[in-house]
Amino acid sequence: MTKKYRLYEVVILVVCCIAIFLISCGVEKHGFEIVDRYSLGIGYGLCLQDGFLYATTNDGIEIFEIGVGKILRHIQSVDVGAPSFTILAQDSITFVGGEGGLTVLRLLHNGSFQIVARCNRAGTFIHKMSLRGDYLYVSDYNNGLSVVDVGDVTNPHVVGQHSLRTGSWDLAIQGDVLYLTNVATGLMVFDITDPTQPKYISTVVSSKSARKILIAGDTLYLGTIGNGLRLFDIADPRDPKFFHGLFELEETSAFHVSEGMLYCKRMEKGIAVYRIGTDVRPVELGYFDTGLNHDALVHDGLVYFVGRAIYVLRLVR
To answer: Looking at residue 26, what is its pLDDT?
Structure first.
């Protein structure tokens, strides 16, 4: 006996077929094409330096060489004994921060990386680091701001601190001024003319739920949870002045700005790219759904981001 289908069953079947076809054609990429992909457990932070890509993970770091065609070639896994969240590479030295404090690695002549020092006092939950001369400035979620002397990379030691309530997140330096985000307080401004004694200047009160900082020229981009992307004029670095907000973008806790384009985390569901300006609403140009995204950077026309995998994407215009 031939089965008769009701109209709603036919409609559901057609919709499912269309969805499968669109997915198979890559429509979910919405303007992005995959150049390369490397699976991880969970990745948190990215750093690109001299042809090497570094990613922090639950176990330590993964190190890749960017080869011909921008394909990732895995070089080494370094287990630092605890989840790592942030990484900073300069010349042959790499600094890794996370739950295990600060770990210092050196690139050897044979192309491998070796742990040369640790500094547990630098922090118990390090979220971000910035290097200025011989001093590494550390944002520790549990303890605030620390200054680590790394003039001798085999003997890093804490030489200054500014204790804060729980919630320190990102930091960035402009000249003799350091900016620090705290999820309870906002965007904080410090004078670091004396590199070992950060002096508190002020807090930008309009920046509650502050997370990520990015500085481009005289503009400071401040990413938030639930309050969009905020732009500050820092022509006078000690006195940031709010001048524009992209409030249409809810979560901007991970983003990168390049040539008038904003590459931004969309909640926990991947990355979107927008054309931005101070006189227009942001225009979405592309979207890629990964299910998880913790950090992003843009280099040489490609977008790198990390979550459960490292993706290398090219925006198709």
So the answer is: 36
